[in-house]
Amino acid sequence: MDLDPITAASFATIDREIGPHPWGWCYPEYVIIRRVIHATGDFSFKHLIHFSPHAIELGIRALRRGAPVVTDVGLVAQAIKAHLTTHLPNPLMNALELATTPADGETRAATGMEQALRQYPQAVVVIGNAPTALIKLCQLLPDLPAPPALVVGAPVGFVRVLEAKAMLNQTTLPRIWVAGRRGGSPVAAAITNALIDLAVSEPPHQATRRAD
Asked: Which pLDDT belongs to residue 1?
C-alpha cells in the first residue's frame, strides 16, 4: 500500500529504532505493532500487544467478507472511519449510538455493546475505551447467536480494565489485546487500521513470514 512521505519516513525510523525482537513477530504482527508505535510514539507497546493464534488471519478474513466493525465509543469509530471507508465497504457502528437507557448498575457502553452484538453477529469488535463494554461482551458469549469474528481488546484506565482483559483471555475468541492498563482509542484504532491495510494488500503467503 502506498504511504505518504511523512508516514513512510516515520515507519522507516521505527524500523531502525525498534531494536531486537527475539520472540519473532510474523510480518502481519509487526505491521500492527509498528502502526501502534507510529500512532503513540511509544516503543513500549512492542511488549504490550499480544495475539491469540490465527487472530490476524481470522480478522483479515472477516474484513474481506464484509463483516461489520463495531466500536465501543465514537472516538474509536471516528479514528477508523476514513481509513475503512476509503478501502472497504464494511459497515461501521459505534455501540453508544445504539444504547438505550441502561439498567441499574450498567454503563451506556455496556448496554450499547449488548445491542450491537445481537444486531451485528460475527462482527469485528474494537474496544479502546470502555472496559464495561468488554466485560459485557464476555458475559454475553454463551447467549449470542454467533460470537465476534475478532475482538480488539484495548480499553484503558484504572477501573475494571485488568478485570476486563482477564475475562477476554479466558475466552476462546480470536483476539488482539493490550496488556495491563494501557490502551485507548488511538491504540485500538491503529490496530484496526493496520488490519484494514493487511486485508486490502496482504498476500496470503506473508501471513507466516517472520519480520526482519
From this structure: 61
Is residue 38 part of the annotated active site? The answer reads yes
pTM over 0.90: yes
15 vs 123: CA distance, rounded Å: 32
Q: Which superfamily does CATH assign the domain made up of 5-208 to?
A: Cobalamin biosynthesis CobH/CbiC, precorrin-8X methylmutase (3.40.50.10230)
- Give tens-digit pLDDT for 152-210: 999 999 999 999 999 999 999 999 999 999 999 999 999 999 999 999 986 644 444 44
pLDDT in tens, 102-139: 777 889 999 999 999 999 999 999 999 999 999 999 99
Coil/strand/helix, residue 152: strand
Q: DSSP assignment of 126-150, as one string?
A: EESS-HHHHHHHHHHGGG-SS--SE
Contact indicator for 127, 75 with CB cutoff of 8 Å:
no
Choice among 38, 50, 83, 87 that is catalytic: 38
Whose cell is 450491537? That residue is 116
